Amino acid sequence: MKLPSILTSLAISAVSFLFLSAITVSQADPLKVGFVYVGPIGDHGWSYEHNEGRLAVEKKFGGKVKTTYVEKVPEGADAQRVINQLASTGHNLIFTTSFGYMNPTLKVAKKHPKVHFEHATGFKRDKNVSTYSGRFYEGRHVAGLIAGKMTKSNVIGYVASFPIPEVIRGINAVSIAARSVNPKVKIKVVWVSTWFDPGKEADAAKTLVDQGADIIMQHTDSPAPVQVAEKRGVWALGQASDMTAFGPKAHLTAIIDNWAPYYISRTQAVLDGTWKSGDTWGGFKSGMVLMAPYNKAIPKDVVAMAEKARIGIIDGSVHAFTGPIKDQSGKIVVPAGKVASDGMLLGMNFYVQGVEGKIPQ
Amino acid sequence: MIIEFVIPALLTIITASTPLVFAAIGEIVVEKSGVLNLGVEGMMIVGAVGAFAVTVKTGNPYIGVIAGAFSGLLLSFIFGFLTLYLYSNQVATGLALTIFGVGLSALLGHEFVGQTINSLPKLNTPFFSDIRGLGPLVFEQDFMVYLSVFMAILVTWFLMRTRWGLALRAVGENHDAAHSIGFSVTLIRLFAILFGGAMAGLGGAYLSLAHTPLWVENMSAGRGWIALALVVFASWRPWRAFFGAYLFGGITIIQLHAQGFGVDVPSQVLSMLPYLVTIIVLVMISRDDFRIRISAPACLGKSFHPHG
């Protein structure tokens, strides 16, 4: 009676063993590059874009590299096992693409001093561990300008995931940009406490539309909010990748994470032997952040304004957080003529004027 | 003013709750027959991908609904075969079924990621739909919402008022006794499992055809587990499961609305609320040892060996 259940568990462990040993390939001449993803590559968001970067590396270097990826790796102990497995099977460059892989990456890096590690969105580095992330708030600035011009109800609905600086920074960038072209704009934020739950994201978007928002923005990974906007006849802004397919009429534009240039340059550095540990926080300028094609329904002058801001950010004449910036109580946090420091941006834990409600503590 | 806010909220609550109703009522029938199938999440997600894929291929969401039910049923057949004929442990097999279902759906759904479909149409009842407020709420849902109410009635009637319902409960209470008076325990359980699979598949179909008409991996996001909790919450009664699903869906949506209105309660607490309420009710029910014992099928989770 117990035998079949033992068989079942044996089968499961056999499958997972095969899965892990599938990445054990004998060491060959090409540079082996490993990627660890937190989500499925089919999420159409975060992990999808990292995988696009991997494909770009393969395309660029052809036979000179060999890439491996492991998807849906939970943050924590499993991550450490997977990263270690990659490091001990001849992968010489490993990208770990979620914040929660920070400590596992550092631990494995200590054991494999000759392997180069790249950790996305983290802040701890080592001799063989670099960090990198995107200045997505630059994209939010452009999106906010468009939203401020396009809204009729003056309410922008924001589906937010978790109250961490990265997300709060995005909300604030939108509020500042939108109010610079339309001072009546208010940002309504609904937190869903998840990165990925299409149903809940859709419910939150519906709620925001019901409460008067005619622009839906999101900092969650599924295209469900865009779809709700399409159905309800309001505007939407996509997240991480071009989500036009899910709302051809509603989708104004999207902020695209574009990892390909960075992944290619880091792979090149390892091939050339010039790889050094460092921290990269790239935006429009380095091509790490892109805007999806603008919806044809956006008036020409609004597109021109958006493009002007994007080009201004590239040449340094525009910054998404330019003073005077006031917090919700009206206190000036960035004085006129100054821009927020990277330190302030990285630790942002307050709402600026125009955002409704309080940050969940 | 009130109608403007309450009606849209109620509409959202209905779509959020309907998948849970299907899955929970299906699982009640399974558990009433004495089988604990923890694979609801797996059957749901496979139902979601099956429904979506067939809708993409045929362009007809109604055929998609049938395909969703059938996909869930097929997956549950694996569970039925393993537990009833090979006597594998129900808990382990059910858990494996969920892991298997999530993986299988990702594999099958690979080519459908990013595709769009026409979602399940809302019905339009002439005259009644025009009633202000009430019209859209009661008379303008897609057919699966009505089907979920109908299934709650049907299952209640079947379990409590029919001979076969009695047989199913007998098998769940004492399979040896049921066997000795000539019922085929294995066959009755198999049918119950298949019914539960089809219902979970319908719940999944509702997710990918009506709630969020798209396919992305893992889109059921734990709803199968909530359905399982609802079964205990409802102490194995279909109507209580129905209201439990609406209570859960309702609190989920109301907390989103409260956030939008700027209610100053930490959103994490609000997100926790539906689960918290479920746990509190569970504790209240389970506190009474006698009541939990009379409502839980006595043979729940036990394998049946016909020859001793």
What features would you describe in this structure?
The complex is a heterodimer of chains A (361) and B (308). By secondary structure, chain A is of the alpha/beta class. Chain A has two domains: 25-134, Response regulator (Rossmann fold, 3-Layer(aba) Sandwich); 136-257 and 289-346, Response regulator (Rossmann fold, 3-Layer(aba) Sandwich). Helix content of chain A is 40%, strand content 19%. Chain A is built from eleven helices and 14 strands. In chain A, the strands form three sheets. Chain A has a six-stranded parallel β-sheet with strand order 2-1-3-4-5-11, with helices on both faces. A six-stranded mixed β-sheet of chain A has the order 7-6-8-9-10-12, with helices on both faces. In chain A, helix 4 (102-111) links the parallel strand 3 (91-96) and strand 4. In chain A, helix 5 runs parallel beside helix 6. The longest helix of chain A is centred in the first third of the chain and has 20 residues, at 2-21. Mean pLDDT of chain A is 90; it is low at 20-28. The model of chain B has no long low-confidence stretch (mean pLDDT 89). Chain B contains 13 helices and no strands. In chain B, helix 2 runs antiparallel to helix 3. By secondary structure, chain B is mostly helical. Chain B has helices at 2-32, 40-58, 61-85, 90-108, 134-139, 143-161, 163-173, 175-180, 185-211, 223-233, 238-260, 267-287, 289-295. Chain B has one domain (2-126, 138-295): ABC transporter involved in vitamin B12 uptake, BtuC, CATH 1.10.3470. The N and C termini of chain B lie far apart (67 Å). Chains A and B meet through helix 1, strand 7, helix 7 and helix 8 of A and helix 1, helix 4, helix 11 and helix 12 of B.
